[in-house]
Specification:
heterodimer, A: 3 helices, about 75% helix, about 0% strand, B: two-stranded antiparallel sheet, 8 helices, 4 strands
């Protein structure tokens, strides 16, 4: 897992120093399709996007913290419970 | 693979919702049954659900193409907690991701089809097929992750083509798929690695979890 994380970090750094936009393919393909079909993406619900970049940082951090707590809390019990019992 | 609100036509949104709900209904029934048999199933479901949520919203840069995308995590989930339960986890993840500006509310059905049904079941079937062919667990799980990831994006491309270009579905399917695939291929390799590593780890450290949840019997996953 350390190696995988290191690969992702190196990839992110290479992308950063290359100056590439690193736009998400979801958005790129969707925008292209919407343009062809004369359609437009709409926001039906309030999202963290309305708070700009800071909203994204805060939103993803909260999501990561909550999910991390769930994973961290359950990880030991599930994967090491038997060892502790023994 | 997160399609936003407003992109798909209403009739396609409804159709994808109906199909997704049919799978989800089986998922609810299956979760109830398994939770009754196995007390550790619900915590495991929560853990895997959190993992799917994070993995499928985690944009990873791919310097070669100058863009970024994300793995899906559902093939791994299908192997660990079962494919129908993974449909439920996907729908919950997509609901919350909509508030993170990933996907939308009207497209939860369509996004569930690509990530939670095609990505999940294709990966699961690959895993079962490989195990039947006596492939090692890491290879079976890795291939499940790779193929599930790619097919998820191919399905998203098809959903876009069906809704937006009904008169030229095949050509636009190819166009949209080619928009996804160059960035997605390296990420599918990453999906191969982490799916193989995680499933192999569980099979080594706590084989009883796999035997209870995606039981492996004589080299074959029972599919329960």
């Amino acid at each position: 897992m350390v190696v995988i994380t290191a690969i992702f970090c190196i990839g992110a750094y290479l992308g950063y120093i290359s100056g590439a936009g690193m736009e998400g393919t979801d958005g790129v393909v969707e925008d292209h399709a919407a343009e062809i079909g004369n359609r437009e993406a709409v926001e039906l619900i309030p999202t963290i996007g309305i708070y700009g970049d800071m909203g994204e940082y805060v939103g993803f951090t909260l999501a990561g913290v909550v999910s991390g707590l769930i994973i961290g809390y359950l990880w030991t019990g599930i994967f090491f419970g038997r060892r502790e019992d023994a | 693979m997160h399609i936003s609100d407003g992109i798909l036509t209403p009739e396609w949104c409804i159709l994808w919702y109906v199909i997704a709900i049919a799978f989800a209904a089986v998922g609810v029934w299956q979760i109830k049954e398994r939770a009754r048999e196995n007390l550790s199933y619900m915590p495991m479901l929560a853990l895997v659900g959190s993992a799917v949520f994070i993995i499928s919203v985690w944009h990873i840069p791919v310097p070669v193409t100058g863009s970024c995308s994300h793995p899906i995590g559902t093939p791994m989930s299908a192997i660990i907690v079962g494919p129908f339960a993974t449909v439920i986890l996907t729908m919950i993840s997509l609901f919350f991701q909509a508030f993170l500006a990933h996907g939308g509310i009207t497209t939860i059905g369509a996004n569930t089809i690509s990530m939670g049904i095609v990505g999940t079941f294709s990966g699961y079937l690959v895993y079962v097929g490989c195990r039947r062919a006596d492939a090692p667990i890491w290879l079976a799980a890795g291939l499940a992750g790779f193929i599930g990831d790619i097919l998820c994006y191919v399905t998203t491309a098809l959903e876009l083509a069906l809704s937006i270009n009904p008169n030229a579905v095949m050509s636009h399917w190819a166009i949209y798929a080619m928009g996804y695939i160059p960035t997605q291929l390296p990420l599918a390799v990453a999906e191969f690695i982490f799916t193989a590593a995680i499933v192999n780890y569980i099979a080594t450290a706590r084989p009883d979890l796999l035997s209870k949840i995606a039981s492996i019997k004589g080299g074959v996953s029972s599919g329960r």
